[in-house]
Amino acid sequence: MAIAVPQPSPTGGITEERLTLKEAEALFAETGYPAPESTLRRWAKDAGLKGIRRGQRVWYSDSEILELHARHVFDD
Q1: Which residues have a Cβ under 8 Å from the Cβ of 37 and sit 6 or more positions away?
Q2: Most exposed of 22, 60, 65, 68 (fewest Cβ within 10 Å)?
Q3: For residue 48, what are the contacts with CB-CB under 8 A and spacing of at least 6?
């Protein structure tokens, strides 16, 4: 999974990529800095991140999840 750069949308705003915490877990496992889905969920809750629920899945901003992961993995 590549990290995308936010691009202008046709409506004039910035579009963000979204991912589930399961997808984020897989991404971080590939980087050598794993973070289990349960840990990511706890971090997101503690940080007050709001996801978008679609059916049974909750989607989060990829940039917010990446920043959250970096804060916990590299700032500790």
Answers
A1: 21, 22, 24, 25
A2: 22
A3: none
Decide: residue 40, CB within 10 A, 0-12 exposed, 13-18 middle, 19+ buried: buried
Question: Residue 16 in contact with residue 63, Cβ under 8 Å?
Answer: yes
Q: What is the pLDDT of residues 15-30, one digit of tens each?
A: 568 999 999 999 999 9
DSSP 1: -
Q: For tokens 């590939």, what's the residue? A: 30
The helix (H) or strand (E) run that includes residue 42 is: helix 37-47
DSSP-based three-state secondary structure for 25: helix
Q: Is 8 helix (H, G, I), strand (E, B) or coil?
A: strand
In this prediction the pTM is: 0.76
